[in-house]
């Protein structure tokens, strides 16, 4: 169970790591399900024999967008809960880079650094995270992004 923190405590962590998620398995079954719902069945993701024969990755790889889509689950897992927060929305990204392919069967996790915490209204804050998605047993990350979230609540007075 996460210990809730105040907005002041969160602000004091600007520039520091604020969370690390658990590992998420990206097996072929998950990749195939994502290919179906996203309508992206390109062979490097869905055809192990052809990918091994024709692609430089040694087999199938996860979609970059599948890895990116796991950021929400990773954030629920890793980020502290802010006292007084009512809701949060994804505001977007300033930058996303798919740094290294994620081979089918690998596990990934998210590492979150709080880059910026701004008061943008009486009950609103904009949080910017520098996120790295690591691949288990790999020196190169799967992706690096600057992710922006907006939160609302009575957290400025709770600080």
Q: What does this molecule look like?
A:
With 159 residues, the chain is an alpha+beta fold. Helix content is 26%, strand content 38%. Strands 1, 2, 3, 4, 5 and 6 form a six-stranded antiparallel beta sheet that branches. A hairpin with a 2-residue loop joins strand 4 (106-121) and strand 5 (124-135). It is elongated.
Task: From the structure above, extract its key features.
single chain, 159 residues, alpha+beta
Question: Topology, pairings included?
Answer:
Layout lengths: L6 H6 L4 E4 L3 E3 L1 H11 L4 H4 L1 H7 L9 H6 L1 H8 L6 E14 L7 E16 L2 E12 L7 E11 L6
Antiparallel strand pairs: 1-4, 2-4, 3-6, 4-5, 5-6
Describe the structure in brief.
The protein has 159 residues and is α+β, with helices and mostly antiparallel strands.
**What distance lies between the first and last C-alpha atoms, to the nearest angstrom?**
21 Å
**SSE topology string:** HEEHHHHHEEEE
Fraction of residues in helix? 25-40%
Shape: elongated
Number of helices: 6
Mean pLDDT across every amino acid position: 96
Q: How large a portion of the residues is in β-strands, by DSSP E?
A: 35-45%
Beta strand count:
6
Which structural class best describes the helix and strand composition? alpha+beta
Characterize the largest beta sheet: strand count, sense, and whether it forms a barrel.
6 strands, antiparallel
Rg calc: 18 Å
Low-confidence stretches: none
